[in-house]
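Is this the right way to post structure tokens for a design question? Let me know if I should format differently. Anyway, here goes:
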């Protein structure tokens, strides 16, 4: 199995969750999701290049697409994109935790 195929399966699940979040009219604010992705992709680029360049992590060349950003294969960036999209969608689908009412508000005078 190639990393591209693995990413496609993983991103398909993320897409289904994002569509479900949009379908229930509780989708996250996509502009904020996009702005969040920018620093995370930059950090991923920096640290993935360090990890791959120093050979702490190595990829089988027959399993990657061959498209690289520095030393890191482009497939590595799909995980950060998936996390940036998946987490807010799950947050909206599963509901935000409710803050418990304080005991003072339930007390009667």
């Amino acid at each position: 199995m190639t990393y591209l195929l693995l990413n496609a399966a993983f991103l398909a699940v993320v897409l289904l969750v994002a569509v479900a979040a949009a379908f229930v009219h509780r989708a996250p604010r996509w502009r904020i999701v996009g702005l969040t992705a920018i620093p995370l992709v930059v950090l991923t680029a920096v640290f993935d290049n360090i990890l791959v360049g120093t050979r702490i992590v190595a990829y089988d060349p027959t399993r990657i697409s061959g498209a690289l950003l520095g030393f890191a294969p482009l497939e590595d960036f799909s995980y950060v994109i998936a996390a940036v999209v998946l987490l807010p969608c799950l947050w909206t689908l599963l509901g935000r935790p409710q803050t418990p009412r304080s005991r003072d508000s339930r007390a009667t005078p």
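Format looks fine. Someone answered above. Worth noting: Residues 3-12+29-94 form one domain. DSSP finds four helices and two strands in the chain.
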